[in-house]
C-alpha cells in the first residue's frame, strides 16, 4: 500500500521546477542565440537602415532577454537548492553497503563481514559528539542486513523480490505542500483562497479572453474598426478617404488618453497647426471625413491623425510620451491597412486597393501623400528637399542625385550609392495564364496567373548578350520546364537558392503565381496586372494581359470545316435554310459527284496502265 505524506522540504517540487524550466528555457535560449536569420535578408545597406534594423531587433528581443535572464536565475537557484538536499538511493544494494564487488564469492563475503564486524560493532566503537550511539547501531544493523541478504535464503528472497531485506514495505509518496495548508485551523482561509481563484479570477480571465477574441476579426483588428472600413470605403475612394478610414479605426485600436496626457495637448495643438500649414486642404478634408455621424472628431482619432501626418511630414516630436504613442500608432498601421485591403479586394474595387497599397510605401518612407517627383527623391538616405533644390541642374532621377553628390564630394554620396544598389524598382518580365498540362484554357478550368518579376535598381542595364538559335531554344525549354515544376509546388513564389538574391540566381527574375477557377463560358477577357511596392514610393509596374477561354477539342471529333453543308432538298437543309444557314445546292452536288467520278476513273486508268 502507499502512504502519502507532505513533502515539507519541497524536494519533489524543486525537481519539478528544474525540469519545467529546462524544457522552456533551453529551446528559447538556443533560438535567440543560435544566429536566427533576420526578417530582412537583403534590405538596404545604408547606415540609417542598418541602425533601424538593429533598433527594431533590440526592441523585439529586449523583453525576451529579460525573461530568459530571470528564468535562468530561478533555474540556478533551484539547482543550488536541489544540490543541498539529501537524497536516498531507491535501489537497495548490499554489495555497496558492504563495500565489496558483486563478483565476490561467499567465502570472501563472510571474511569481509567479520572484518567489518570487528571495526563497527557497537562495543568496539566509541561514542563521540558527531557519532551518536543510535548512528553506530544503525550502521551495524545495516551491515548485518546486507550480509544476510547475501547469505540467508529468506532474506535474500526478500531483497530480490521486494528490494528490501525486511520484505514488502509501505510506499511513501511525498506531496509538495506545506503543512499549514492542511491544518484544520486554516481550513476557512484555504477555502476562501480557492474560491477567489476558481470562482472569481479564473472565470474573469477566461471571460476576458473569450469576449476579447469575439471583438477581434480574423485580421486581428477590432470588429468595430472593420465595420467602419466597410462603411467608409467606396468604389472610387480617394486617398483622403482611405486615410480618414484608417484614422477612424484608432477610436477602438488606440486606448483612450489618460488624464495626465492632457499635458501633451499643447504640443499636439502645435503639431496640428504646423501640419495644416504644410499640407493644407488635404489634411482638413481627412479630418472632416474622420468625424462621426454627429460631426464630432473623437479624441483618439484626432491624436492618431496628428501623429500619422507628423510622421508623413517628418515633423520632430519633443515629448518622449508622444514619441512612444506615435510609435504605437505607426506600428499598428500595417495591420489596419491589411484589413482595409481585404475589404477593398473582397469587393473587387481597384481604385481603393491601389490607394491602400501605395499608402504603405508613404508610411514606410515618411513622405507626404501624393508627393511630387522631386520630393520622392528624399527617400534617399541623408537627402532632404533643401538638398535637392540646391543641386544644379535640378535632378529628376536618383542616379542624377548620386552623380551630383559625388561631384560635390558630399559625405552622404556613399550612403546614397548603397541605397540605390538595393533599390526595389520592379520590372514585369512576363505575365501569362497557364493550365497545368494543357495548351489551351477551357471553361471552368483551374487557371494560374504566372507573373515573372525582376528587380532593376536605378542605373542598372537589363540588356543581355545575344544567343545563338540553339542556345535560345535550350534556355526557353529549360525555363518552360522550371515553370511547369513551379506550378506543381504549393508555394506562391518561386524558391530562390539560399544565400542568393533574385538577380544572383540562375534566372535573373522570380516567378509568382495566383490560382483561381476560370469562367464557365468561352470568350476573351482583358486583365491588368499591377505590381505595387509597399516600401518604395512610386515604384510600381503594370501590364495588360488577355485571358482566352476556348472549348476543348476532342480527339477524333470532326471540326466545323470537315462537316459538309446539308442538301437543299433534305429535311436538314430546309431547317438550316429557315435559320439562315448555308445549304448545298443540287447542282453543286452533281458537280462534286462528277468530279469524284472523274477522279475515280483517272485513278482506275492509271492503275491499268501501270499493270500493263
From TrEMBL:
CDD domains assigned: DnaJ
Places the protein is found: Endoplasmic reticulum membrane
MF terms (GO), sorted A to Z: protein transmembrane transporter activity; RNA binding
Protein name: Translocation protein sec63
Membrane topology designation: Multi-pass membrane protein
Chaperone in keyword set: yes
GO cellular component: Sec62/Sec63 complex
Domain J: residue ranges: 93-163
Keywords from the named record: Chaperone, Endoplasmic reticulum, Membrane, Protein transport, Transmembrane, Transmembrane helix, Transport
Source organism, top-level taxon: Eukaryota
Amino acid at each position: 500500500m502507499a502512504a502519502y505524506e507532505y513533502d515539507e522540504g519541497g524536494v519533489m517540487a524543486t525537481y519539478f521546477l528544474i525540469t519545467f524550466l529546462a524544457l522552456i528555457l533551453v529551446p528559447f535560449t538556443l533560438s535567440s542565440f543560435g544566429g536566427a536569420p533576420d526578417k530582412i535578408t537583403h534590405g538596404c545597406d545604408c547606415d540609417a537602415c542598418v541602425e533601424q534594423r538593429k533598433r527594431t531587433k533590440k526592441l523585439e528581443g529586449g523583453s525576451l532577454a529579460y525573461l530568459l535572464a530571470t528564468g535562468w536565475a530561478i533555474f540556478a537557484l533551484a539547482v543550488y537548492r536541489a544540490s543541498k538536499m539529501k537524497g536516498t538511493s531507491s535501489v537497495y544494494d548490499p554489495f555497496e553497503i558492504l563495500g565489496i564487488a558483486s563478483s565476490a564469492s561467499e567465502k570472501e563475503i563472510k571474511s569481509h563481514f567479520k572484518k567489518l564486524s570487528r571495526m563497527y560493532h557497537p562495543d568496539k566503537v566509541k561514542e563521540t559528539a558527531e557519532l551518536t550511539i543510535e548512528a553506530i547501531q544503525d550502521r551495524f544493523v545495516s551491515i548485518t542486513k546486507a550480509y544476510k541478504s547475501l547469505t540467508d535464503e529468506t532474506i535474500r528472497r526478500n531483497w530480490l523480490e521486494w528490494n528490501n531485506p525486511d520484505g514488502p514495505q509501505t510506499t511513501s509518496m511525498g506531496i509538495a505542500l506545506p503543512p499549514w495548508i492542511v491544518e484544520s485551523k486554516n481550513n476557512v482561509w484555504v477555502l476562501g483562497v480557492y474560491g477567489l481563484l476558481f470562482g472569481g479570477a479564473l472565470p474573469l480571465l477566461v471571460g476576458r479572453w473569450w469576449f476579447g477574441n469575439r471583438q477581434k476579426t480574423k485580421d486581428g483588428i477590432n470588429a468595430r474598426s472593420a465595420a467602419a472600413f466597410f462603411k467608409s470605403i467606396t468604389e472610387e475612394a480617394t486617398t483622403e478617404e482611405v486615410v480618414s478610414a484608417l484614422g477612424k479605426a484608432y477610436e477602438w485600436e488606440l486606448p483612450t488618453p489618460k488624464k495626465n496626457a492632457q499635458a501633451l495637448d499643447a504640443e499636439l495643438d502645435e503639431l496640428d497647426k504646423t501640419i495644416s500649414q504644410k499640407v493644407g486642404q488635404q489634411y482638413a478634408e481627412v479630418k472632416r471625413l474622420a468625424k462621426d455621424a454627429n460631426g464630432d472628431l473623437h479624441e483618439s482619432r484626432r491624436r492618431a491623425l496628428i501623429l500619422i501626418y507628423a510622421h508623413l511630414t517628418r515633423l520632430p516630436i519633443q515629448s518622449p510620451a508622444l514619441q512612444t504613442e506615435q510609435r504605437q500608432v505607426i506600428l499598428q498601421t500595417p495591420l489596419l491597412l491589411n484589413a482595409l485591403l481585404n475589404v477593398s479586394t473582397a469587393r473587387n474595387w481597384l481604385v481603393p486597393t491601389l490607394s491602400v497599397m501605395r499608402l504603405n510605401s508613404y508610411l514606410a518612407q515618411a513622405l507626404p501623400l501624393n508627393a511630387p517627383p522631386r520630393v520622392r527623391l528624399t527617400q534617399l538616405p541623408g537627402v532632404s528637399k533643401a538638398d535637392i533644390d540646391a543641386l544644379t541642374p535640378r535632378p529628376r532621377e536618383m542616379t542624377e542625385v548620386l552623380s551630383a553628390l559625388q561631384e560635390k564630394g558630399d559625405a552622404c554620396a556613399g550612403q546614397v550609392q548603397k541605397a540605390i544598389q538595393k533599390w526595389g524598382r520592379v520590372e514585369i518580365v512576363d505575365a501569362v495564364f497557364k493550365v497545368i498540362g494543357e495548351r489551351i484554357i477551357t471553361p471552368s478550368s483551374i487557371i494560374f496567373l504566372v507573373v515573372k518579376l525582376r528587380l532593376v535598381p536605378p542605373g542598372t542595364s537589363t540588356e543581355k548578350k545575344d544567343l545563338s538559335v540553339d542556345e535560345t531554344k535550350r534556355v526557353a525549354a529549360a525555363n518552360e520546364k522550371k515553370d511547369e515544376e513551379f506550378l506543381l509546388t504549393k508555394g506562391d513564389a518561386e524558391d530562390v537558392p539560399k544565400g542568393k538574391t533574385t538577380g544572383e540566381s540562375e534566372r535573373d527574375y522570380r516567378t509568382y503565381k495566383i490560382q483561381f477557377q476560370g469562367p464557365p463560358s468561352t470568350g476573351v477577357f482583358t486583365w491588368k496586372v499591377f505590381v505595387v511596392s509597399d516600401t518604395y514610393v512610386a515604384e510600381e509596374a503594370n501590364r495588360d494581359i488577355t485571358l482566352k477561354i476556348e472549348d476543348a477539342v476532342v480527339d477524333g471529333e470532326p471540326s466545323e470545316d470537315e462537316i459538309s453543308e446539308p442538301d437543299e432538298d433534305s429535311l436538314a437543309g430546309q431547317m438550316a435554310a429557315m435559320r439562315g444557314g448555308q445549304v448545298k445546292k443540287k447542282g453543286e452536288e452533281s458537280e462534286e459527284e462528277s468530279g469524284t467520278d472523274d477522279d475515280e476513273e483517272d485513278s482506275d486508268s492509271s492503275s491499268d496502265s501501270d499493270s500493263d
